[in-house]
Amino acid sequence: MGQSEHSMDRPRTMNPVGMATPGGHYSHVSVTHGLIFVSGQLPIDSSGRKLADSSFEDQAEQVLANLASALAGAGSKISKLVQVRVYIVNVEHWAKFNEIYARWAGDARPARAVVPVPALHYGLKIEVEAVAAV
Q1: β-bridge mates for residue 41, sequence order
Q2: Fewer CB within 10 Å, N- or C-terminus of the chain?
Q3: What are φ and ψ of residue 21, in 5° steps?
Q4: How many other C-beta atoms can be found within 10 angstroms of the C-beta atom of residue 97?
């Protein structure tokens, strides 16, 4: 395989404008073969402030805003979501999340998993990752 063929297979990564700098060795977005993979988004605002002391509702809205920003930065949008994975620290938050998510997603109904977990980084209550079409 020639160098140019190999580079065509390499995912294009980015950290869209308006999102906090990633806190580890990763990019917010990786694009390959017509798909956009969005790394787990935590409730961290664009200035890098972690919303650990905010309500679950505020954290969920921030995470979904981050996801929308990541999609827009990669040339996609909510209606092109293929799969969404949600991690919440307490299954009791599921109903409230589903309500917020339904309002945010509108007519989009991608495949989805909501997984209760014992803890998330920085004491946050929710993390969301997703795959979308370009």
Answers
A1: 128
A2: N
A3: -60, 135
A4: 21
Q: What are the φ/ψ torsions at residue 25 (nearest 5 degrees)?
A: -85, 75
Q: b or e along 109-124 (b: 16 or more beta carbons within 10 Å of the residue's beta carbon)?
A: ebeeebeeeeebeeeb
Residue with tokens 């589903």: 98
Q: Report the b/e string of 22-54 with b at 16+ CB within 10 A.
A: eeeeebbbbbeeebbbbbbbbbbeeeeebbeeb
- For residue 133, give both structure tokens: 């079409």
The pLDDT value given to residue 88: 98
Give 84-125 pLDDT, tens digit per residue: 999 999 999 999 999 999 999 999 999 999 999 999 999 999
Strands (E), the chain: 12-14, 29-32, 35-41, 81-88, 111-116, 126-133
CA distance 92 to 66: 23
Show the domains of the chain with their CATH numbers.
26-133 (3.30.1330.40)
In this structure, what token pair is assigned to residue 17? 């404008």
